[in-house]
Each structure stands twice: as structure tokens, then as C-alpha cells.
Amino acid sequence: MLRIVYANLGYSRAIDGSLGHHVKRVHHHVFTTRNVQLRSLHYVRDRLRELRPDLSCFVEIDRGSLTNGFFDQSRALVEDHHTTVRIDNKYSAERKFRRLSVSRGKSNAFLACRPLTYVARYLSVGKKRLVYDLEMAGIRVLVAHLSLRYRVRCVQLAELARWVEERDGPSVVIGDFNLFRGSGELQPLLASGRMAHANADAGPTFRLGPYRATLDTCLISRDLMDHCELHILDQPFSDHQMIQLDIKGFEMNEAPPLATPLLVSAQAEPA
What we know:
Elements: E1 2-8, H1 19-24, H2 34-51, E2 55-62, E3 84-89, E4 106-112, E5 116-122, E6 130-136, E7 139-145, H3 150-164, E8 171-176, H4 187-190, E9 195-197, E10 206-208, E11 211-213, E12 216-221, E13 228-233, E14 242-247
Parallel strand pairs: 1-2, 7-8
Antiparallel strand pairs: 1-14, 2-4, 3-4, 5-6, 6-7, 8-12, 9-12, 10-11, 13-14
GO molecular function: catalytic activity
InterPro entries: Endo/exonu/phosph_ase_sf, Endo/exonuclease/phosphatase
Pfam families: Exo_endo_phos
């Protein structure tokens, strides 16, 4: 079995999306103490220990910024069994941020316990552009965090659909797609009939007071449909829920081991 866990960590600000948290903890958007971050991160770490995923993917994780005291949150999640660790700026590959920029450190990341191949790719438009393109056990996994702006998001979804069609074979596309206008926005990815919306009926993944929406999305290729089991898991320190995807009984081929077994990436950003 291959188990994938995905979560939007909300930068570990300990805001669960309730109006009470947004009002009482609004100052966490300006600055979040390390103790608050660690309580959230230790919950995630303990959940990972329980679930024992082969691949853990995160968006809205902080590599160290002005608003979190320059604390690299990924360090609180990495354990000895993680053979590959990657964390990258979620904006364009070329864009650099000064030390006091509020955007500095805002990242995506993944932790892997099995051999895989991967590349960090960047969409051509928008502020949030990073897409991880991974292959583990013969299954391709794309991890994305798309724009809040509808018109930009439409372009990103169309580009992501072209990337999916680059290769045949079993595929998973997962991430925070910010589908505020509903699942109809996924049409570019679903139009060919190759991909299916795995969590279409699994319930909302985002909360803002009484508002609920399925912003976090998991698509699977149809050759995986009879082999996948998906669960939405509560995440009390974020306004997003966690997604657990189990792929069972599928003939998998291990990717060749990487030349470097452990890689922690931190793109250089000038002070």
C-alpha cells in the first residue's frame, strides 16, 4: 500500500477557522510565538506517527519569516525515517525576498519515507506558483497551491491540466486549489476523462466561521479508482482539514533511489 497525507498547515498559527479563533487570535497573523507553532506542529507530527504515510505533503508551511520569528517549521516534523525532505518558496523560482518581507519563508514542503524522484516546477502566472512533481512507487503525484484570484486560477488550472497530460500512467493531483466558485473550476483537469475528483463527496475541507467549502482537492487517474480509499481528517490547529489517500492493491514499481538520500532545500534569499 502507498499512503499519501496532505495538509494545509495555515503556517501553524493555531487558528481553526472558527470566528472565535479569528477574533481572539488575530494577532497570530502579525506574529506567532514559537511555542504556539510547536503545539500545532507537534500535533501534526504525532498524527504522522500514527498514520505512518509514505509521502507527506504540506502547503502553507513557514521556512522562517518575520511573522514567525524566523523559525523553520519543517524541522519540527522531520524524523529519522524521512529519507527525503524538501521545502521551497511557494512563489516563483526567481523571486527573492528581503529578510523583513512578510512573504519571505512562505513555502510548500514534502517528507518521504520511500525512494522517489521529484522536481520543483513553477506555474507561469500568479504569486503562488510552486508545484511539486513527484513519482513514488510508479505513481506520479502533483502537489499544488493555487491562486486566490479566479482569473489567475483559471490559467493555472489549464496549465496544470497540460502538465498532467504530459505523461500516461497512474497519477494523483492534490493540493489547495482555492475553488471558491465550486468544483466546476476543475473542468480543465477533468475534461479528458482521465482524472476523477476523489473527494467530491467527502465533505468540506475548509472552514471560516459558518462557511464551509471544499478548497483542498484530490484528483486521481481512473486506473486508480478501484484501488483508492480517501479520508478527510480533522486538523484542529488549521482552518483546513487533512487528506489521507491510501492506494491499495495496485501493482507498483519502485522508483530508483536518489543519489542523495536526504535533501533539505532552502533557496537562497538575500538579507
